[in-house]
Amino acid sequence: MNPILSRPSQWLPLLLLLAFLFVPPAAAALGAQFYVGFLARILVYALAASALNLVLGYAGLIGFGHALFVGLGAYCVSLASLAGVESAWPQLLLVLLSCACTGLVTGAISLRTRGIGFIMITLAFSQMGYFVFVSLKQFGGDDGMSIIATSRLGAGIDLGAATPLFYAAWLVLAATLLWMHKLRSAPFGMALRGSRQNLARVNALGFPAKRFQLIVYVISAVLCGLSGFLLANLNAYASPGLMSWQVSGELIVMVVMGGMGTVFGPLLGALAFIGIEEIMKSYTDHWMLVFGPMIVVIALAGRDGLMGALVWLDAWRSRPARKAAIGNIAPANGGER
Questions:
Q1: Helix axis angle, 265-281 to 34-53, nearest 10°
Q2: pLDDT at position 335
Q3: CA nearest neighbour of 165 among 213, 79, 227, 223
Q4: 110 closest CA partner among 69, 49, 50
Q5: What is the pLDDT of residue 2?
Q6: Segment 8-32 mean pLDDT
Q7: Taking Cα atoms as reference points, which of 131, 132, 144, 123 lies closest to residue 248?
Q8: Nearest to 277 by CA among 287, 263, 262
């Protein structure tokens, strides 16, 4: 058997990502456009969870404030639209600059602490952003603000439509996952992952671990801003609620459910989190009473989440091959005796 085909942890997530490409034409043929918007939301949150995974899974920094950058990305769209800027390119430039600068400042301050201090200070920055936008009554305050005109990429492509936004989210997510896959074996990524285990030893080897962590924090902030940009166009709405600690908590749960430090874990986690939430909401208004214990069980079952289950499946599928190999070796050894 082909070694790749014998390892579901390698081909199943990739197959899932490729299967997303066929959702819009299938939904159009079946007259079920709801699923395009629903799965686009999963792709957007998978992008935000992948951004958090860079900090949480690769660098080992438990940040509780990435919702700040999601909200900033969303408000860049709404404020630009209010000013009459409908083109997506200047909006994207605004997203990149605002999230990169905010990530640089907040990251430089937060990385002066570790452990619970890092958690609390990132949470504090996120809540500061939340209350700043709540206080801006001219921009909707606590009620948020509707987006007058959604972003336009040119050539008649309007990200306010579900299908163009779906493919835009897919492309950004696919590029991010490919880059994260390359990062795992790159010197920068290996030093970053090493700092998760032993920061002092990485510094002793000559790598500026703190600088690497700050760089990846800024990159993570920008990717979260892109997810906010897409989410604002999907909902045609921006709200301070996107900066709340609940959103940061949901992103952490997605990463943990999928598998921290894995490439496809955030995608699996977002799909499981949002999918289970949507199913449970259709049965009961008290779905969180059921979903909460499920998350606890998944977290206790293993650090690698759903990706860990696929790795276990790899080992289970390879067991017969190992037994066959041992069976072929045993007669030869017996013959020598």
A1: 140
A2: 46
A3: 227
A4: 69
A5: 45
A6: 89
A7: 123
A8: 287
| CA–CA separation, 175 and 165 (whole Å) | 15
Class of residue 293 by CB neighbours under 10 A (exposed 0-12, middle 13-18, buried 19+): exposed
- Rounded to whole angstroms, what are the CA distances from 263 to 9, 17, 295? 11, 12, 20
Cα 123 to Cα 113: distance, rounded to the nearest angstrom: 13
pLDDT attached to residue 294:
79
With 90 as the cut, is the pLDDT of residue 153 above it?
no
Question: Tens digit of pLDDT for each residue in 280-319?
Answer: 888 888 888 888 887 777 767 666 778 877 777 766 666 6
HSE of 143, CA atoms in CB hemisphere, 13 A: 7
Residue 228: is it exposed, middle or buried by C-beta count within 10 angstroms (0-12/13-18/19+)? buried
What pLDDT sits at residue 1?
Answer: 45
Cα gap 158→234, rounded to integer Å: 11
pTM of the model: 0.89
